[in-house]
Design a protein that fits this description.
Order of helices and strands of chain A: HHHEEHHHE
Number of strands of chain A: 3
Number of helices of chain A: 6
Oligomer: homodimer
Strand content of chain A: 5-15%
Helix content of chain A: 40-55%
Distance between the termini of chain A: 22 Å
Structural class of chain A: mainly alpha
Strand order of the largest sheet of chain A: 1-2
Largest interface: A-B, 55 and 55 residues
DNA sequence: TTCATTTGCGACTGATTTGGTCTGATATCT
DNA sequence: AGATATCAGACCAAATCAGTCGCAAATGAA
């Protein structure tokens, strides 16, 4: 129903946390999870996915944990969300390979594809550094109607 | 995972169908469902929700069916989607009444609220009449960063 | 070297959501 | 009266999601 998964939500929280604590020690999954009252196990799983996509870098061992792998301004909300939940597709039809079987008859496919791209555009415009700022400027995103 | 429900998808198909057949006879749920290879029962249910939100108007009885209740240019994709699936909220935290319990600690709440509004803006900018056109202009949507 | 700490990964379970069906009622036209 | 539609809600099965567990591998410190 057009909702972010909790995992993606937690991912954004974690990445923002790392952005705010950068140049300090690496943050362990446990540390982050406890700070926000999230299950340790689940936060660990989320951070693993972020690490696999090279959004954060992991450090094993005692006093290990996670660090941002890029500048906060180079990480978009879309990066985080799709690292955790896979590609953002508002309909199942939009996929490259599989289609909904009624693709030939389906008249909303193409309009929805454009809506999808607008949403991708919104999500990729929002960066972690923007999410960490107090002040908020305005930007314009091209909507392909 | 940020996907439109199938019901919302079917709703858009149905409304677009009605837009293309306006000034003709009323279209029954069965007629629309068969044209696109969708379960009749399910399409009926979708149309009922659209009727309850006054997006389409229903006509009972033989030769009855549904007609658009407004001009296609006055119906947005958001209207259709939220009529079927309820309000579009990308996180559960964003709700008016309930919050996620960790609201005070949650640092992504406010940024996500702005992303949510940008998405609402995208969806409300796309109208059924636009979805029926072949030619597509470009519009600008303000993104609140 | 040994041990505690921490990430990495896959399997698993339970809860929630969603897709889809069925039944019965009500309205309307012929 | 009878055929055709919508209306409403209960209902079920399948898919998805949240969250847990166990075990392996890497690393740092005593």
């Amino acid at each position: 129903m057009f909702k972010l998964s909790k995992k993606a939500d937690y991912g954004l929280i974690a990445v923002k946390h790392l952005a705010m604590h950068r140049d300090q020690h690496a943050c362990s999954a446990t540390e982050i999870a406890e700070e926000y009252g999230i299950s340790t196990m689940l936060m660990a799983k989320v951070l693993q996915k972020l690490a696999r996509q090279r959004i954060v870098s992991a450090k094993h061992g005692a006093n290990g944990g996670y660090l941002l792998a890029k500048e906060p301004s180079q990480i978009s909300a879309l990066d985080v969300i799709s690292a955790i939940d896979g590609p953002v597709l508002i309909t199942s039809c939009v996929t490259s390979h599989g289609n909904c079987g009624a693709a030939d008859r389906c008249t909303v496919r193409e309009p929805l594809r454009r809506v999808n791209e607008s949403i991708l555009s919104v999500l990729s415009t929002v960066t972690i550094s923007q999410m960490s700022e107090e002040q908020h400027e305005h930007a314009l995103v091209e909507l392909q109607t």
